[in-house]
Write a structure and sequence with these properties.
Elements (H helix, E strand, L loop, with lengths): L2 H17 L4 E2 L10 E10 L4 E7 L2 E3 L15 E2 L6 E5 L7 E9 L18 H8 L3 E8 L17 E5 L5 E4 L3 H4 L3 H10 L11 H19 L6 H10 L10
Parallel strand pairs: 2-9
Antiparallel strand pairs: 1-2, 2-5, 2-6, 3-4, 3-7, 7-8, 9-10
Amino acid sequence: MSKKWIGLALLAAWQLSSCASRFEPFVGITSGKNRMYAAPVEAIEYNYENLSGGSIGGGCIPKTPGIDDYEVGKKRYGGGATCGAAALRAKWTPGMTMHISWKILPYPGWRPRVLSVPGLSFDRNEVNIIKQYDEYYSADIPLPPPPPSAGDDFGEVANITVHFLPCNQIFITYGTIEEGRNPVHWKLFAESQKLCTPRPSIKSMADYRKNKAKLDAIKAERAKIPQVILPRYIQRLEAEGKLPVSSQK
């Protein structure tokens, strides 16, 4: 078979799998205790800051812009776009974790000055000042169980959705309708929002010079805040007896 037809066959297979409502198992590890799924990864941003991508379980977290600063707490943005798949065991078991890392651009309206020279050239000094406030985070996050409709079977859910809360905290859902209607998301937002100092609006070097001490203090504060809100949520589910019992031994 020619390279052209091989390429077309692979493209067709990818299109079919991307339209499926269930995860497509990775080839070669589809049976026994090592059975796994390729889980699409989505992100939802609740903040004014931009999510500049990341990774979870070997899968890519898509870049996701924040919302307008006056809509924080009222809306969220993201979902529906993926940039890669995470490796996920077929059955949920207590204690399952995934490693996650991500990058935040905390002041998306702050851009460097364009120089009056041929071509598009930015003031490098301003670029470096802005970049020093980029934030990088990582955590080993426990995975919650799938919702009751899926039992302990990850093949019954749609994706891994990573929710990014106000104070660089995160939690995980699986893209189901029952989760999307769950008001606990906004309760977690409100809980997280109380843990840190709100960021000032920075859109110019004049704003930066006026607020530099506050920006430095916020960056130091954020570095000390626990980055995962999920354990408290899991503990509550355990106390309420809502965790499904895994069938995997």
